[in-house]
Amino acid sequence: MAARTPASPSYCTTGSTWLHPLSQLLGIPLDQVNFVACQLFALLTAFWFRIYLHPGKASPVVRHAMATILGIYFAVFCFGWYSIHLFVLVLMSYGVMVTASASNIHRYSFFVSMGYLTICHISRVYIFHYGVLSTDFSGPLMIATQKITTLAFQVHDGLGRRAEDLSPEQHRLAVKVKPSFLEYLSYLLNFMSIIAGPGNNFKDYVAFIEGRHIHMKLLEVNWKQLGFHNFPEPSPTRAVIQKLCLTLMSLLLFLTLTKSFPVTFLVDDWFVHKANFLTRLSYLYIVMQAAKPKYYFAWTLADAVHNAAGFGFSGIDEDGNFCWDLLSNLNIWKIETATSFKMYLENWNIQTSTWLKCVCYERVPQYPTVLTFVLSALWHGVYPGYYFTFLTGVPVTLAARAVRSNFRHRFLSSKALKCVYDVVTWAATQLAVSYIAAPFVLLAVEPTISLYKSMYFSLHIISLLIILFLPIKPRHAPRQPQTLNSVHKKAN
């Protein structure tokens, strides 16, 4: 039976109602107010954590414990009794971690975590019937699933595989000792990532808690060549301020642009039956652009929270500037200027793409692209719109590869031709992404079919024709990452 729709959206929450007066004053649903309040409090807490619980002042046990306690409080504040799902998933997964053998730990952890997440996704669809959940508890579950499976695969790499069979990246991130219960809880439930992520690697997180995170990155740089005699002390303040400014801009765009161009217009009678094709295509692009700021806001703010705590340092750039983008989930400039579908995907939801590569793309023996898209759809949920999006993405990806491999080299002989190629491929990429992503926000089958019929299934047909008649030229580099063994053979 569907849940009864409340009279006012501001009452729609299973979390705390302390901020209900503010929700009514702003006219914003209470669950959204709770989310923003938690993230802002997490930002302030992160500064306190970095200064007063600095590794030089507090032991790793204290830092782990405090990060976990605060994270649990945030989860209960935002989601109320729904947070039980998160705690159950974490406890079950830790049971698998300590009981499963190293050779099977990745399989059992994957099926337990993805299975529980899928059950929760299914319950949301049947209970709420495609409505936008008043308290969407699936977000923390999705982040936890990423971390659980990533850690399980890295433990498998460290304890269940030979070092020479690992790629350099797998070898670097391999975990050779199973985490303690406190380390496991802290990694999955810490206050920095429990609400909005992003996912990260266990070794990086433990190094941050123990105070080795920045030092490890600094050791990778030859400071004498840059004129330094001692290690500098990189501060995250500038990076945090820049990201907060970007967060504020994203919030303003969300409150104006998103509300001015609602996605529901894509299935409006006038849009579907009366508007001409170019009008539909233009409005589709505008609507999907207007849907982005909420993701820019949430992910950039989450990144700033981690940086404020001192986590996320990635080294220095070519100009000698300190970089704090280890955990960044998107690169807005590269997204908006992407000239290929691959470039767009590489800069959108970066940590999720890294997770998919780690647990699926690099490890499956056949059909890596198809299976990666399927896993991504399953991880997002069971709404049919997700599957329309990700399964449409498969032929588009293959078609884009075919076009690029057959034509790009023809436009590299002059700057003018290269500029023309970039402009055309930019427009094609942005429109293609809008076409592919529309079902992701429409969710249900009927509006998705209605939209695609109004667009004459154009991109589906074009992609299939390209795949059929335009061969994909083989890449020079193999898809599978090199193992340490192959690297050693080449070196010798």
Automatic annotation (TrEMBL):
It is found in: Endoplasmic reticulum membrane. InterPro entries: LPLAT_7/PORCN-like (IPR049941), MBOAT_fam (IPR004299). One of its GO terms (cellular component) is endoplasmic reticulum membrane. Keywords: Acyltransferase, Endoplasmic reticulum, Membrane, Transferase, Transmembrane, Transmembrane helix. One of its GO terms (molecular function) is 1-acylglycerophosphoethanolamine O-acyltransferase activity. The chain crosses the membrane at residues 33-53, 65-88, 108-127, 244-267, 385-403, 423-445, 451-472. It is a multi-pass membrane protein. GO terms for biological process: lipid modification; phosphatidylethanolamine acyl-chain remodeling; phosphatidylserine acyl-chain remodeling; phospholipid biosynthetic process; regulation of neuron projection development. Pfam families: MBOAT. This is Membrane bound O-acyltransferase domain containing 1.
